[in-house]
Amino acid sequence: MNSPTTPSRPPLRSVLLRSRKRTILGVDPQKLIKYFFGSNASVAIIVLVLIMVFLLREGIDFLPTYQRELQTYRRAGLEFCDIIDQPLQRNQALSSSLRQAVSASLETLSKTARDWRDAAFLLKRQVEDKTARPRESLTQALEKTPPAPEQIEVFRRELGEASAAAAKALDYPAVFGTAEREQLQREFAALTPEVTDLPPLLQTLAAEFSAKDREARTKFASLVQAQEEFEEATEPLQEVVDELKAKALETKEKAVEFDVLETNRLRLLEAAATETDAKEKASLTKEAAESVSEAVNLEKSIQEITGRTAELREQVEKYAVVIEKAAAVLPQDAGTGAARALVNEVREGIPAHAREMRAAAATLEGWRWDKPVSIFSVIGAFFFGTQWITNSSWQDFFGFVPLLSGSLVIAAIAILIATPVSVVAAIYTNQFASEREKEMIKPVIEFIQAIPSVVLGFIGISLVGNLIKDVSEWSWLQWVPGFPIQERLNMFNAGCLLAFMAVPTMFSLSEDALNNVPRAYIDASDALGATKLQTVFRVIVPAGISGILSAILLGLGRVVGETMVVLLVAGNRIAIPDFSAGPGVIFHPAHTLTGIIAQELGEVSRGSSHWQALFMVGIVLFAISLLVNWCARAVARRFEPHKA
Amino acid sequence: MAAETPASTAAEPLIQVEKFNYAYGDNQVLFDVDLNMSSEDVTALIGPSGCGKSTLLRSINRINDLVDSARVVSGKIKIDGIDLYAPDVDVISLRRNVGMVFQKYNPFPRSIFENAVYGLRVAGVKDRHDLEEAAERSLRSAALWDEVKDRLHEVATGLSGGQQQRLCIARAIALQPRILLMDEPCAALDPIATARIEELIHQLRGQYTFVIVTHNMEQAKRIADRTAFFYKGRLIEEDDTMNIFNHPRDPQTESYITGRLT
Ligand SMILES: Nc1ncnc2c1ncn2[C@@H]1O[C@H](COP(=O)(O)OP(=O)(O)OP(=O)(O)O)[C@@H](O)[C@H]1O
Ligand SMILES: [Mg+2]
């Protein structure tokens, strides 16, 4: 073997032990390559961890901060005032229902007259707008001293001609007969700046309306009066509450100022303690000494508030009695069915409101200004709080529920729309479409993903909003709950657009899932005499169901996290959607977890409680996304029958 | 066993393949195939890989219709005198009457019971009692009843391979078809499971007309009355199994059965 004729070949042992010389900075290049790839993978993980750490660090301080704020809210007596003030807000809602009932009732008599008057006045305005220039010239000429009669005459003629032309060109509504139309035209043509009185026909129309209105007000006098009385009933109580509120607010402001200065002082002292330079140290100490304010005597100020509990209770009782009486005398004879319904609603709402007020008054006694705010109640106030109020001159509340409910309702709408669309499209494409159709459908649907979401936002504002509003006004669709809608920008609109955005993800993943159904199942089903549809619904869809479900969940993740569209289209009203409106609630505006962060984070000062609250929202959002993704994976694994 | 197989019956052929030419796109894979298969016979189709056995089999229940490029170039397949590719043929009904068992057992990922009655369900049978009866009958015919009767509602993919294949046979015969097409039904099974399937075919012969593709010469000898040898898309020779294996007329047949031709 080791033939002497090939001396050039080195002995085997030397080859086996030869050390590799080729290294980069002393490291084996093979290893370098391995580290390079490995490090790229770990970068993703590290960044994810960093994001979590960062979010937590910024957000977690929120709880103690909010705890301090709520503590101040209690100690300064704001909470005490809110006990009465919050339920008292209900009066406004009831009043506004009554006001609506009143105006609907009055309209039964005065609407025609008012419409005529308004139409005529609108026409007059249009003429005046069109003849603004000659009118201005004439006015100036008239004011000039000494007057120039011939110039005035020229301008007057010009104005006359312009007015006549404008009056002729007007689009007269059909409510005016030919005679009226001609008279209006004549009156408009004769309008001059000197005559401030209304032309005769307009005067007549205005007078007619006033007469009708007066007549209506006498006819519904009891209703009008009840409404006024009810609205005024709050006044004495509100006066006391406002007084207390002012006092509480003053205390709170002092306490906050004291807090700020005190924190500052402590920080300066700390800096001074570690400062080595003597001069610097002296100046820091001096500054600290200046940073004092008079500590607020909370106990004393709170007594000025709680001292008036008895008076407050008395006022509440009086108020309750007055409104109950008002409820008892509310007339039955409102003008229209809708108005009667509103009045009935108020009639039933008042006793409940009175009860609520009395109950609130009863709790005043048990209220303690020095009861500490526990961290659990702070957590509760965040996660179950129903108010998100910021930049308030009274008190900021960071309650999460309005945002969460908005996000969830929108996501639910989007998923309910997107699921059937994308799954059906996937089934069609996968099972029924010809090769050419597939080549059409897939890229088109996938292209939707490339549309920037801000562009979709435009479409939502300009197109979808108007479309929904117009459709909601069709008379034969009035059975749909919530129709006709009030707001163009609402949760349904946002849901539609998000559905559109989620479709590509859900479509592609569902299609993949169907594609992965083994060919053998399809053959077996066909060979047993199943029709195409039977095969699809009895074999292919059940076998692909895990993939489809996880596609839906991933779509949900996308929808919950989407920001731009909801910010632009959802209407951004920070309130819990009014679920008492039934399914029609989807046409109400709302705000969302993502939208609130995008909207407010840029405007708040770094490190403030508001800033921290937004980070908390971010953390929760992050957690929701993780959860949804995890579920998607779990589902994909759970229902994998052919991998069993 | 082969000794017992009767010489081919003189009965009217149930399946008649006449000058059948078949192609996938431009690639013709069957050329002028002429073959008659008699009712109640077991016919084995043999031949090297790619010679078109499966294609012929899959043309008999028209399951190849689902392959986009597949088409009949010319010729006919008739069952009971009816041209299968005539426009007024009800393909669904054809498939209900011509069952098929595949090489790789493919029960649905559902319960054993649901597998057994799938064909009936898609045929519109709803009555629970009828379904249960049919399930029992077909599982008994497939010699599977005793093994699964206590676990009818467990998922079918938990059975052994041989059991799964017998379930597929049960599933096919639940519809009481006249013809059973089997494409290498034992190729994925071990010898014992194979023996059980062969035994089953023996028991069922006479009730159904079997057409079986196999690569196993011994198997063909054991179970088939008639054997047809295909090569490169052409039918080379078709005769009583005994004759094919003992006195092949064509030299290609001889090379194939003696293992010299692949
Ligand atoms: N779906 C298809 N599309 C295109 N060509 C196909 C298709 N199925 C089979 N063929 C071709 O048709 C020819 C015959 O195939 P077929 O499956 O009928 O052979 P076979 O005799 O069953 O082979 P095997 O013993 O390996 O199963 C082969 O050349 C194959 O490539
Ligand atoms: Mg084959």
Structural account:
The complex is a heterodimer of chains A (644) and B (262). Helices cover 74% and strands 1% of the residues of chain A. Chain A is mainly α and 644 residues long. In chain A, strands 1-2 form a two-stranded antiparallel sheet. Chain B is α/β, with parallel strands linked by helices. Chain B has helices spanning 53-60, 91-97, 112-122, 128-141, 145-148, 161-173, 191-204, 217-223, 241-246, 251-257; strands spanning 13-24, 27-38, 42-46, 70-79, 82-83, 98-101, 179-183, 209-213, 226-231, 234-240. In chain B, strands 6-7-8-3-9-10 form a 6-stranded mixed sheet, with helices on both faces. In chain B, β7, α7 and β8 form a beta-alpha-beta unit. Chain A binds chain B through residues 435, 518, 520-531, 534, 538-539, 542-543, 641-642, 644, and chain B through 61, 63, 66, 68, 92-93, 95-96, 99-100, 102, 104, 106-110, 118-119, 121-123, 155, 157-158, 168, 171-172, 175. The complex binds adenosine-5'-triphosphate (ATP) and magnesium ion. Adenosine-5'-triphosphate (ATP) is lined by residues 24, 29, 49-55, 67, 69 of chain B. The site of magnesium ion has 4 residues of chain B, from α1.
